[in-house]
Specification:
Blueprint: E1 2-6, H1 10-22, E2 26-30, H2 33-42, E3 47-51, H3 59-68, E4 75-79, H4 84-93, E5 97-100, H5 105-134, E6 135-138, E7 141-144, E8 149-152, E9 155-156, H6 161-172, E10 177-178, H7 180-186, H8 195-210, E11 220-223, E12 227-230
Parallel strand pairs: 1-2, 1-3, 3-4, 4-5
Antiparallel strand pairs: 6-7, 7-8, 8-9, 10-12, 11-12
Helix pairs in contact: 2-3, 6-8
């Protein structure tokens, strides 16, 4: 794990670097606020240790600017100021933890590992949420956005590009009545050869692939005078 220490007290920088390297971390340092900010912005670290009182750019500003720039690197504030208002402000700006000098290397090491664990856990939750968003289940049909495919009972359906677009649209609008015109506009398929009538042909072909009895569809139903409705039985 790689750390960046932004601290202007030479003796503390030397001590922290030595002890954290001994503990197995890779350590980089910056003794100037602006220098540290640019290093944190341009490079990838597992954790940042930032002093509050720094030349050229203070720790609060570093936290604020990094978070505004979209940098989510775990960040711990190091300071001699045991002031509750400073702690609250630092955390509100986006710091992950706050440790008051003097502190032991063992405590700092534990804090570093804790914020990194929380960050990794948060990333995994985001990935799981993204996977859920990209995987849409409708009964025995599963739409996998990332792979650009639809499965039925675990098997990949052989669909044309247009069929995939149409079935995906219906799966996302489960239970709603969709007119032919809405379908064409919703999919941006105004140039579709044959217009609304060709939709009927595609629907017929889709039924052959997803219905038990295509002549008596249970999923992709015709709503006379309106259009079609997809019903999976599971929302």
């Amino acid at each position: 794990m790689t750390l960046l220490i932004i601290e202007d007290e030479p003796s503390l920088v030397t001590l922290l670097s030595y002890n954290l390297k001994t503990a197995g971390f890779e350590v980089e340092t910056a003794t100037d606020g602006a220098e540290g900010y640019h290093k944190a912005l341009e490079n990838t670290y597992d954790c940042l240790l930032v002093d509050l009182m720094l030349p050229s750019m203070n720790g609060m500003t570093i936290v604020k600017k990094l978070r505004e720039a979209g940098k989510k690197t775990p960040l711990i504030i190091l300071t001699a100021k045991d002031n509750e208002l400073d702690k609250v402000l630092a955390l509100e700006l986006g710091a992950d933890d706050y440790i008051t000098k003097p502190f032991s290397t063992r405590e700092l090491e534990a804090r570093i590992k804790a914020v990194i664990r929380r960050s990794e856990s948060s990333k995994e939750e985001v990935k799981e949420d993204e996977k859920k968003e990209q995987r849409l289940v409708r009964g025995d049909l599963v739409l996998e956005e990332a792979k650009h495919q639809i499965l039925k009972d675990g098997d990949v359906l052989e669909l044309t590009k247009t069929q995939f677009k149409i079935l995906s649209y219906f799966m996302r609008n489960n239970g709603l009545i969709i007119s032919r015109e809405q379908l064409i506009q919703g999919l941006g398929m105004e140039e579709l050869t044959g217009g609304t009538r060709s939709i009927d042909v595609h629907i017929g072909n889709l039924r052959e692939k997803i219905e038990i009895d295509p002549k008596h569809p249970e999923r992709l139903k015709t709503v006379r005078g309106f259009g079609y409705r997809f019903e999976s039985g599971t929302s």
